[in-house]
Amino acid sequence: MDLRNIAIIAHVDHGKTTLVDExxxxxxxxRENQAVAERAxxxxxxxxxxxxxxxxxxxxxxxxxxxxxxxxxxGHADFGGEVERILSMVDGVVLLVDAAEGPMPxxxxxxxxxxxxxxxxxxxxxxxxxxxxxxxxxxxxxFDLFANLGADEDxxxxxxxxxxxxxxxxxxxxxxxxxNLDALFQLVVNHxxxxxxxxxxxxxxxxxxxxxxxxxxxxxxxxxxxESGRAKVGAxxxxxxRVGQKIEQFRxxxxxxxxGLGQQDIDEAVAGDIVSLAGMSKATVSDTICxxxxxxxxxxxxxxxxxITVTFGINDSPLAGRDGKxxxxxxxxxxxxxxxxxxxxxxxxxxPGGEAFEVSGxxxxxxxxxxxxxRREGFELxxxxxxxxxxxxDGQKLEPVExxxxxxxDDYTGAVIEKITGARKGELAEMKPAGVGKTRIIAHVxxxxxxxxxxxxxxxxxxxGVLNRVFHGWTPHKGAIPGRRAGVLISxxxxxxxxxxxxxxEERGRMFISPQEKVYQGMIIGEHSRENDLEVNxxxxxxxxxxxxxxxxxxxxxxxxxTLSLEEAIxxxxxxxxxxxxxxxxxxxxxxxxxxxxxxxxxxx
Length: 605
Hints:
Belongs to the TRAFAC class translation factor GTPase superfamily. Classic translation factor GTPase family. BipA subfamily. By secondary structure, the protein is of the alpha+beta class. 22% of the residues lie in helices and 33% in strands.
């Protein structure tokens, strides 16, 4: 059967997973009466809840005698480690662009990787049936993007289609028949070359492992594209690392190929096809699986270095062990090492005491997803504030800088520019209109300056602004950047919070807790209205007497507390604070200090 391997690239919420749903339906991958969930490729619970693609996944459709392997790539730069490996498996890319928004930062990040690999793009202008769609402008911006990223003449001479993924049509002309996706299927078959590996079927077997999975019955599963030769079930093969070191020899116990949304057992894998192998015990991502006669490994894509680090520690608060079952440092370490094995963008390092672990990654969202997965698995953790990783070159300290693209109402433009170019040490790169009453701001801001900024940004723009960021490069260190200005309210007692006490404390600041919630000494229960930290007593009840007086029976009406999400909590804390994460709660607290230090640092109410 004729074969094509493609990846679909798109910014977050540009309709990539919805388009894949329609490709599967129209290719006959589902039965007529089969019940299929929306966004079928987003199989992970977190992906469905957040509406983003986190894990790269492959599927396969058949169209008029051609099998098309489709890889759904993550749209967020924090999960770029997935993207870099996946693109090495395909021979072409479909760039999906919202006709209203045009190419966005995450599009730029993944597209630069694809162009560097020499892949020829197909541009699909999606959502052209929206009222604010401007497909011609979006197409011009795509051409400018490719030119800026150093595309060659073949890549700049790209075909394009107008489409609506939700309605299930794609046409070469804007006023086309709008019936189905046949035009996209035909363009993929005509424009994307067949895998060059097909010519090497008579050579020894070689495959580069790009993703790692596990199965309770067959163990480790490695997925990749067969670069040469054939692999049969029961054949003896070996694994070689990127540097040429032989890791292990093993017998292939199972070969699976992608068919629709599922995987099907096959007896033989041929060059050019994307398959999963089982039987190994040590081989991992970026290793070469090959015949015993092969000596040299395949070249693996280098992975961009991590930019932030977060310290994961055991939960040592007084409320530890009440929600979760996995609380020991040994269990936490095993889980983090397992994560680092399958996600090459994450690095784990033990701290000197052995009770905590430094986890380095691409961004706050990537860390937030890892922590959220762990708490759902029953872990209890204490998490530090993210720290930016610095590097030194020629005796000069360098820090990572991110390109920030902001779409905001004209009324809030001044406040946003003042924040990012002032205390946060950003530099304005471009500013232009982005539709009626909207402005697009592009700035280069140090990663340190963006930690904790998103919540402030939503407040400044009354929740209407959209902020996207992507790694831009390294720049000389720009000096100190001030953190959170407001102090915090710290509990000085252990017990359950009392409504009367919280009511009296409202004039001191905004609360993070509700009545009857358990608190302990050192726990942060609210944000102070001033810059200093303040120790308060949330357990102080009302004094009862037998004398009635006016105002005694005044009703207690509390303002609803602020509920911080996991990412917001991690970004909110200062260096001397921690986030306590359990399966049922997210709490903030001070790092534990001796009594004399606490007395010196805070003023008691």
